[in-house]
Amino acid sequence: MTASASGLSPPQPPAKNLPAYAELHCLTNFSFLRGASHPHELVERAMLHGYSALAITDECSLAGVVRAHTALKEMEAEQDRLRKEIEEKLKAAGASEAGPLPQEALDAAVQQEALENWMLKPLPQLIIGSELNLTSADGEPFCTLVALATNRNGYGNLSELITLGRSRAEKGSYRLGPADFTDSLPHLEHLRSLPDCVLMLVPQRTATLSHTLHCAHWLAAFAGNRAWIALEKHSLPGPRLGGQFDRLLLPACDGNRPRAHEHADRALHLARATNRLISTSTSSISAARK
């Protein structure tokens, strides 16, 4: 498989000596009316750009993770096939030499081939996660968290929390609040603070500085060193956070929250966002008239 065969356009050569980059907040088209690209397209694009890891974090769902995992397994199998082809060619070229092919020679040949065939680039690590929009007891928005599972137990805890949120609301929606992280019911005590998951607070542009600080302090109080604040260009409150990072009590990480792997799909994302805005506005007007 080549970049052209999969519909991917080759990126510009990356700058040298850049640190490894991992995208920790990424939506697929399983986030209805928000994400535009299929999971496998995002995985392929992450590999093409040399990402060290990619977190699939659809809203209160793990559906995109399954497809992304399947895509990675298929890409891994294709890489094994290509490596065997390269190894056979090298052996045929040096058939007169006795002994097995040195691993260093094979690795060097694969790296050289990867310059032309993106399918031989290192695969990104898949991180399992989910975006959770919490609401307070009165139904008002509280904050947005991105939960990333760090091991099998964290994956189980996140899955159970998603099931809990979905079971409280009609199909297609969910309901989770801050109390689900700090005041769990007796039979859900193991979900208190969502163990074995990294929790990232995503500030919202519409939130006041005092509310952002309140949410940051709330998260830091129970999550400790598992708590971070995500500085994303789509949601950063801008200058209101300037000079306030020492008050947040959380370390910061960068993010882009990609929702599309190609510019063409970004147009689709914008159309979906517009439809969602129109639908929300229409519902609000209808409710006000009643």
List its salient traits.
alpha/beta; TIM Barrel; 42% helix; disordered N terminus; disordered C terminus
Q: Which fold name fills CATH's third level, the topology of the largest domain?
A: TIM Barrel
Radius of gyration: 22 Å
The portion of residues forming beta strands comes to 15-25%
Number of strand elements = 7
Low-confidence segments, given as residue ranges, are 1-5, 263-290
**Integer tally of domains:** 2
What is the molecular shape?
elongated
Strand order of the largest sheet: 1-2-3-4-5-6-7
Report mean pLDDT, rounded to a whole number. 79
CATH class of the largest domain: Alpha Beta
Q: From the 3D coordinates, which CATH architecture of the largest domain would you assign?
A: Alpha-Beta Barrel
What is the terminal-to-terminal distance?
Answer: 57 Å
Order of helices and strands: HEHEHHEEHHEHEHEH
Q: Count of DSSP helices?
A: 9
Which homologous superfamily in CATH is the superfamily of the largest domain? Answer: Metal-dependent hydrolases
Structural class: alpha/beta
Can you give the helix content as a percent range? 40-55%
Q: How would you characterize the largest beta sheet?
A: 7 strands, mixed
Please write out the topology.
Elements: H1 3-6, E1 22-26, H2 39-48, E2 53-56, H3 63-93, H4 103-114, E3 125-135, E4 141-149, H5 152-167, H6 179-182, E5 197-202, H7 209-223, E6 227-232, H8 245-248, E7 252-255, H9 263-289
Parallel strand pairs: 1-2, 2-3, 5-6, 6-7
Antiparallel strand pairs: 3-4, 4-5
Helix pairs in contact: 2-3
